[in-house]
Amino acid sequence: MKLGSLEELFVSELKDLYSAENQIIKALPKMAKAVSSPDLRMAFQEHLEQTRGHVERLDQIFDKLGVSPRGKKCKAMEGLIEEGKEIMEEDAKPAVLDAALIGAAQRVEHYEMAGYGCVRTYARQLGHADAAELLQQTLDEEGETDKRLTDLAERNINAEAATMHA
After folding, report:
1. Widest CA span of the chain, in angstroms?
2. Distances from the Cα of 47 to the Cα of 12, 60, 90, 131, angstroms
3. Rg (the chain; Cα; Å)
């Protein structure tokens, strides 16, 4: 894809996020199934529903731009998800696995927050106010999920994992 303008970069990055979100939709049910903490399982399940909403928002933006969301594979998300799969294949005690999967999920959230922050800024610069507002909503939700995961880790999961001995 040619990147000769900020508009082309904006569309390219939106396609990257669209691919990333769809990969997350496939990964989250596996992560939810792998954890032992009911609170963490619920957080993953709720974020799955939220992620479907993120895709719907991106679809709205693509419709308004008159552009297809297809055509790009987010290799960064593919790698982050692969790391999460590797964690799930480890011979780990349940609380340690939960702590590890929180870390994997937060790496995903931070990647998404960086991406959404950039495209929101591009949208504002390009005069796409409606898109900027939708992207900000998603950015806010990604930040809330990150905070929720931190809270779960700090409140009980990491403490429980810390009591495990090899």
Report:
1. 56
2. 25, 20, 24, 21
3. 17
**Domains, the chain, with CATH or none:** 6-162 (1.20.1260.10)
Asked if pLDDT for residue 166 goes beyond 90, the answer is no
- HSE-CB at 142 with a 13 A cutoff on CA atoms is 26
* pTM, full prediction: 0.94
Tokens 């731009």 correspond to 65
| Residue 76: pLDDT over 80 | yes
Q: Could you give the CA distance from residue 61 to residue 93 in angstroms, rounded to a whole number? A: 43
Q: Are 62 and 32 in contact (CB under 8 A)?
A: no
Token pair, residue 109, equals 């959230």
**Structural contact between residues 61 and 135, judged by C-beta atoms closer than 8 angstroms:** yes
Q: How far apart are CA 64 and CA 49, in angstroms?
A: 23
